[in-house]
Design brief:
The strands form 5 sheets. The chain has a 5-stranded parallel sheet, with helices on both faces. α4 (86-102) links the parallel β2 (73-80) and β3 (105-110). Mean pLDDT is 86; it is low at 1-17 and 494-503. The protein has helices at 7-12, 22-38, 54-70, 86-102, 119-138, 149-161, 166-169, 189-199, 215-230, 235-264, 280-295, 303-314, 379-382, 427-433, 438-441, 490-496; strands at residues 45-49, 73-80, 105-110, 140-144, 180-181, 265-266, 269-271, 319-324, 328-333, 336-341, 355-356, 361-364, 370-378, 393-397, 405-408, 415-416, 425-426, 446-449, 452-456, 460-461, 479-487. The longest helix is centred in the middle third of the chain and has 30 residues, at 235-264. α2 crosses α3 (54-70), α3 (54-70) crosses α8 (189-199) and α10 crosses α11 (280-295). The chain has 503 residues and is an alpha+beta fold.
């Protein structure tokens, strides 16, 4: 990790004016208090998520200013979704230059996300998964997100419009889930911009934040300003106060619900004897905690679902079912209730057309259940590349590839020339040798260069595009492509494999 300059040298270089200035204090002091609440052990790492926008840039500058007295280490992460063309590339370059100037270690990730349903949600899930991987790799104690007070107010209003209850209106927490940390929830957007102006720091602008097609943007630019102007001046501040009250209330009722649930556990289900005697709020919270434990979250669970579950558990009818999203239902038999599957997950399917693999970033291979992660390594810069020990990884000498790599499904008559063997073999025979179940043969991905099959993840690597030169003999500019295959439906695929270790 780069050397951390002392606070005096930062001031001397003009990076930070005195924190006694009002604009600086409005950001530095709340962040310092959040650090105290985090109780971070000395020399632990904070990983700051930096998009290049004013909020995250201000957070990074403020963390850097607090680093000497906070005695923590600091790194940054930037995720490029490639959704805005040259603007996305500009943001990445800006963050690289910013972190280089501040001497903050930076990890960059990227994917080629395509437009479609739930774009924001898919982007957030990929971004958070990237942040978790980086935090694991760097052993970070906290992942700092730059959500601020205006974001909080917008979230409360958006959830209010959608009919959220106490848990939903509590909005974002400063700490959690996991290592996520939001130290700026009490700082307004205007204060962050004023801070950046004070220290003379630049930032980038995301043009998608102006799009009225996104609900949050309509709330930010139209609804909330109109409500504050015409009906309730200071509404944003009161919404953040409401969120704080709801978080306290939600914490209290959640603790009570977990105690109640612990007393009712019966194997994988729960006993509902006397459930009708519980207060409605406690009964609902107990059912939410039961679902949260069993389903690892409450995605798509509505107030109506909880009310129907409460009616089933507290009613006089000794048997019945409530259908829930995601192929689940709650079934009651006398004084016992449990969750059960209503239908198997959607079947895996082979590809109807080949998909080109990105040379950098992630490529999703649809209903076949695989994701490919790719990165280019410059052997002259990155040095020796160890051969992959995992059969779900492979290296390719790019100079020997016939254009980009593609992934497709198995076709009758497919053959491959396995590394370490002479001649070729039928792919069908390899599937049988590896005891790959028939259900998986039609969906298992085959990586091709031109018409040649160069790799079957987990099964065999071909002789094509092998790295055949020693490190001291590396030709100038020679690059290696590192590919890693991941299953998006690991549990289902593993359950079908007779010998998963071979795949």
């Amino acid at each position: 990790m780069p050397r951390r300059p002392g606070h005096a040298s930062l001031l001397a270089r003009g990076l930070y004016p005195s924190s006694r200035s009002r604009a600086c204090a409005a950001v530095i002091q709340p962040l310092a208090r959040a650090l105290e609440r985090a109780k971070l052990a000395p020399d632990r790492l904070i990983l700051a998520a930096v998009s290049g926008g004013p909020d995250s840039v201000a957070m990074l500058h403020a963390l850097k200013a607090l680093q000497p007295r906070g005695r923590f280490r600091l790194a940054a992460a930037h995720f490029n979704h490639h959704l805005r063309g040259s603007e996305s590339a500009r943001d990445e370059q800006f963050v690289r230059q910013l972190c280089d100037r501040l001497e903050v270690e930076l990890v960059v990730g990227q994917t080629r996300l395509t437009a479609g349903a739930n774009l924001e949600e898919r982007a957030r899930e990929l971004r958070h998964a990237f942040l978790k991987r980086v935090a694991d790799r760097l052993d970070a104690s906290l992942i700092a997100l730059a959500h601020q007070a205006d974001d909080q107010a917008e979230t409360v209003l958006m959830r209010l419009l959608r009919g959220a209850g106490v848990a939903g209106l509590s909005a974002m927490k400063e700490a959690g889930p996991g290592r996520l940390w939001r130290p700026l929830l009490t700082v307004k957007r205007a204060a962050l911009v004023a801070y950046l102006d004070q220290i003379g720091a630049a930032w980038t602008t995301d043009s998608s934040n102006a799009s009225r097609l996104i609900l949050r943007n309509r709330i930010r630019h139209t609804l909330l300003p109109m409500l504050e102007r015409d009906f309730a001046p200071g509404l944003a501040e009161r919404l953040t106060e409401l969120a704080a009250e709801m978080r306290a209330l939600d914490g209290f009722i959640t603790d009570a619900a977990r105690t109640e649930l612990a007393s009712r556990r019966a194997g994988e289900g729960l006993t509902v004897l006397g459930f009708g005697d519980l207060d409605f709020a406690l009964a609902d919270a107990t059912l939410r905690e039961f679902l949260r434990e069993r389903l690892s979250g409450l995605r798509h669970i509505s107030r109506d679902h909880i009310e129907m579950m409460r009616g089933l558990c507290s009613g006089a009818n000794p048997s019945g079912r409530v259908v829930l999203p995601g192929g689940w239902r709650l079934r009651r038999q006398y004084d016992f209730a449990e969750l059960e599957r209503t239908a198997p997950p959607a079947p895996l399917r082979g590809l109807t057309e080949p998909i080109q693999l990105a040379c950098c970033g992630r490529t999703e291979v649809g209903a076949s259940g695989f994701i490919f992660e790719a990165r280019l390594l410059d052997l002259g810069t990155d040095g020796p590349v160890p051969l992959p020990a995992d059969p779900m990884e492979a290296l390719f000498d790019t100079a020997q590839l016939r254009g980009p790599l593609w992934v497709r499904s198995f076709r009758a008559g497919d053959r491959i020339s396995p590394h370490g063997m002479t001649g070729s073999r039928k792919v069908q025979e390899l599937f049988v040798d590896r005891k790959l179940p028939r259900d998986l043969r039609a969906v298992w991905p085959l990586v091709t260069s031109g018409e040649t099959i160069v790799w079957i993840p987990g099964i065999v690597r071909s002789r094509s595009a092998l790295i055949t030169f020693a490190h001291q003999e590396i030709p100038a500019g020679r690059k290696v492509l590192h590919l890693r295959a991941l299953s998006t439906r690991r549990r289902e695929i593993t359950s079908l494999l007779k010998n998963p270790a071979t795949c």
